[in-house]
Structures are given as C-alpha cells and as structure tokens.
C-alpha cells in the first residue's frame, strides 16, 4: 500500500498555480514538491516566432537578469525576429524608391508637355 501524502500549502485546489509532484525523500518519506509555473519565451510581434537569444522566464525573473540577456544587439532587438527586421528594412527602401520613381515620372511628363 502506498503512503499518504498531505499538501504542504494551504491552497487545496488543483489549479495552474498549485501544481505538485510526488517525491520520495532520502529518509523514505513521500512528500509533495510544489512546482512553479512554466515560463513562455517572448515572441516576435509580427510573426509570433520565439525570439532566439532571449531566455524563457517568468515575468519577475526578467528584473533580475542583465540587459544583455534580455535583448539582442540589433534594431528592434527584443521585440522582432531578424527576418521581420530585414523585411521592414526592405519594405521601407522600396517605398522610398517608389516615391523617387513617381517624382521622376512626373518631371518627365512635365518636360514632355513643353
């Protein structure tokens, strides 16, 4: 017959914040170990990809690690993945090019009228 295990916290309900695991101690007793919530990694704001180089921690733990561990040294470092940053740069470049082409075409049409 297995040994009975009692809860070590006052909260008796089976909730997400009250997960536990049965552990056998070196003294032969069976006890509950209360587990912390699982951390999720930060995701890219555009494509929802997990951001590489940034650890998955609970929100409060980000306050204890250094800035270089929370971000990547690039434009949009801790918020967008590298591919989305690249796409944004290319899109901005093409928009500027389109403006220049439009301006040149307008000027060419103007000189053709004269």
From TrEMBL:
Claim: Ribosomal protein is one of the keywords in the record: yes
One function term, GO molecular function aspect: structural constituent of ribosome
Gene Ontology CC annotations of this record: ribonucleoprotein complex; ribosome
Biological processes per GO annotation: translation
Entry annotated with the keyword Ribonucleoprotein: yes
Keyword annotations from UniProtKB, A to Z: Ribonucleoprotein, Ribosomal protein
Gene3D superfamilies per the UniProt record, alphabetical: 6.20.340.10, 6.20.370.70
Domain of life: Eukaryota
Protein's name in the database: 60S ribosomal protein L34
Lineage of source species: Eukaryota, Fungi, Dikarya, Basidiomycota, Agaricomycotina
């Amino acid at each position: 017959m297995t040994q009975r295990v009692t809860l070590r916290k006052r909260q008796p309900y089976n909730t997400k914040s009250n997960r536990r695991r049965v552990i056998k101690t070196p003294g032969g007793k069976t006890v509950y170990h209360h587990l912390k919530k699982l951390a999720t990694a930060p995701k890219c704001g555009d494509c929802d990809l997990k951001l590489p180089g940034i650890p998955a921690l609970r929100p409060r733990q980000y306050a204890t690690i250094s800035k270089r561990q929370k971000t990547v040294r690039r434009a949009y470092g801790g918020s967008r993945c590298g591919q989305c940053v690249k796409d944004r740069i290319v899109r901005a470049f093409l928009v500027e090019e389109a403006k220049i082409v439009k301006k040149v075409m307008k000027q060419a049409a103007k000189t053709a009228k004269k």
